[in-house]
Amino acid sequence: MLREVTGIRYVTPLREGGSVPGVVEADDLGTYVVKFTGAAQGRKALIAEVIAGELARRLDLRVPELVRFDFDPVIGLGEPDQEIQDLLKASGGLNLGMDFLPGSLGFDPLVFPVETAEASRIVWFDALIGNVDRSWRNPNMLVWHRDLWLIDHGASLIWHHNWRTARAASDKPYDASEHALSRFDPDPAAAAAELAPRVTDALLTEVTGLIPDEWLTDEPGFDTPDDVRRAYRELLLNRAADVHRRITLAPKQGERQPPPEWLRTWVEGKNAQ
Ligand SMILES: Nc1ncnc2c1ncn2[C@@H]1O[C@H](COP(=O)(O)OP(=O)(O)O)[C@@H](O)[C@H]1O
Ligand SMILES: [Mg+2]
Questions:
Q1: Is 241 within the bounds of a domain?
Q2: Lowest-confidence region among 186-200, 225-239, 253-267
Q3: Residues 94, 145: one domain?
Q4: Is the pLDDT score of 266 beyond 70?
Q5: Do 140 and 234 sit in the same domain of this protein?
Q6: Which residue range is the domain that position 81 belongs to?
Q7: Domain stop point among 69, 104, 139
Q8: 3-state secondary structure (DSSP) of residue 75
Q9: Taking each helix axis from N to C terminus, what angle separates 225-242 and 42-58, rounded to the nearest 10 degrees?
Q10: Which residues 6+ apart lie within 8 Å of 2 measured at CB?
């Protein structure tokens, strides 16, 4: 089970992305970024955070610790924004916390170089979980102590929003052409050779076992939380086998198309002026 902590002080909302997580202090004296069950993205976003985050960790990618976060809306009463108040009031009980990395910076591909092997592993992993939220516009990676840390997997595993069509949806290609690590010439096939054999049924059983039962009950078409866990396992196992063949990459640095003739003429004309 994930470790469980209880919130004692709501510090501030984080407004960069869509889900407005909160920075909250807990009874273990730690500070966490809390994703709330009452957010528009709902509990499936939290399930995606648990599966993707804990799977990434077991593949030796860096993800801040995830905890079960017990939140009492009373501690947020001082928050003046009415929308945030509503979010907190709708989120009493079990939520998801991620260890807050103090002093971390948002990843910028033009400033922080990433080795090809690491870029390859992350691009392959994002393809595995169908992550559409790691583009250069919105990298959802932090640089902390000179290392790259992955955050925000709430928008991955999108096919779980409709289990009837999930298998067909998960067989679709993965477009990595705008991935934040594109410029580091990732080689997802090499990463697949290294990582795919590690994505076993046993590993996925361990990972899906960390999803709280509360978030898996009442899933249409399933009788028990374990049935839903099995569906996640089967889908990811199937995808791990061959998703690297369905990844679209941006052209490599040295292979970019030359500019079209009209543009070259125009630039030369400008330079001659
Ligand atoms: N563990 C963390 N440590 C420090 N800052 C974080 C952490 N997690 C998120 N943040 C900051 O909060 C922002 C929003 O969090 P994120 O998980 O991306 O949620 P969303 O995009 O769904 O709102 C991030 O862009 C980042 O700046
Ligand atoms: Mg984000």
A1: yes
A2: 253-267
A3: no
A4: yes
A5: yes
A6: 4-104
A7: 104
A8: helix
A9: 50
A10: 50, 66, 67, 68, 210
Crossing angle for the helix pair 188-195 and 116-128, to the nearest 10 degrees = 70
| Ligand 1 first shell, C-beta below 6 A | 14, 16-19, 21, 33, 64, 98-101, 104, 106, 140, 142, 151-152, 154
Q: Which residues of 234-254 are buried (b: 16+ CB within 10 A; e: fewer)?
A: ebbeebbeebbeebebbeeee
Alpha-carbon span 225 to 130, nearest angstrom: 22
Is residue 174 within 8 A of residue 132, CB to CB? The reply is no
Q: Looking at residues 102-111, what average pLDDT do you find?
A: 97
Pairing of strands 105-106, 147-150: unpaired
Identify which ligand lies nearest to the alpha carbon of 133: 2
What average pLDDT score do residues 181-188 get? Answer: 97
Determine which residue's CA is closest to atom 22 belonging to ligand 1: 19
* Residue 79 and residue 122 in one domain: no
Q: Are residues 62 and 95 in the same domain?
A: yes
Ligand 1 atom 17, closest CA: 152
Q: How many domains does the chain have?
A: 2
pTM for this entry: 0.93
**What are the residues whose beta carbon lies below 5 Å from ligand 2 (ion)?**
17, 140, 152
Does a structural domain hold residue 71?
yes
At 4, give phi and psi (nearest 5°): -120, 135
